[in-house]
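Justification of computing resources. Each target in the renewal requires a structure prediction run like the one illustrated here; the chain below, 136 residues long, is used simply to show the kind of job we budget for.
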Amino acid sequence: MPVLSASKIEQISQATDPKAAIIKAAGDLGKERVAADLVLVGTYIRNERTAGGIIRPVDVVKEDEYQGKVGLVLKTGPIAYGDWEDGEFRGENARAHTWVVYAIKDGWPVQINGTPCRFVPYDKIRMVVSDPAMVF
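Resulting structure tokens:
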């Protein structure tokens, strides 16, 4: 049985603003709830056109769904924050609409409204970045 890629990958890869494209593609998540300490991130899909003007083949673009290590925080669970039971502050990594870096193995891949996403435990977020293109 073939693996089906998320239907909105090409739309996201052709956008000039990847943040706005992921938010639009995922749709309204206002009524949805993420559980526990999980963070729902929309997977960053690199632009289909490289800086040098080369257009990446569709199969290569789709590979970002599986190999991408950066995502846009779309929604957080009720305990995905910096204060933990042991009283130690662990930062504020999971703010909505920020780019975060995570290990692929730490996320559960899903498609939300045809958009490639992952559920990542809050404590598995490795870094916050201003530009998702700086990490691959």
